[in-house]
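User: Hey, my collaborator sent me this sequence without any context and asked if I could get a structure. I don't really work with proteins. Can you help?
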Amino acid sequence: MSKINYDINLLNQTINQWKGAQKNDELDDIWPLCDEYMEDNCKQCPIAQTTGKPLCRTTPYKDFTLHMALEHSEIEPAIRCNKCKHFANSMVQFLENILIKLNSQAHMLKK
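Assistant: No problem. I've predicted the 3D structure and written it out in structure-token form, which is a compact way to encode the shape of the chain:
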């Protein structure tokens, strides 16, 4: 499997994890993309390659975790309120935009 197709698969898994969390209010703190790419400071992660920053620093995830710490006194990710759901939805949209870009790139490579 090519890296781009591998990343598409990991992105889909991560998106599904966020969507599932919006339904059942629980988040797994092991994200498929993080599990694969965090060890090298996210250098090969499609999120970091999009933002230019490691550890989702400039994504809705940063806002989500800050909200969790300040409003819910928690560091473990979970959906606790409507604002949490808003941040989770923002993260899904953010990831879906990256997925669209990767799918387009994969399609171009097939030509």
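In plain terms: The radius of gyration is 14 Å. You can pass these tokens on to your collaborator as they are.
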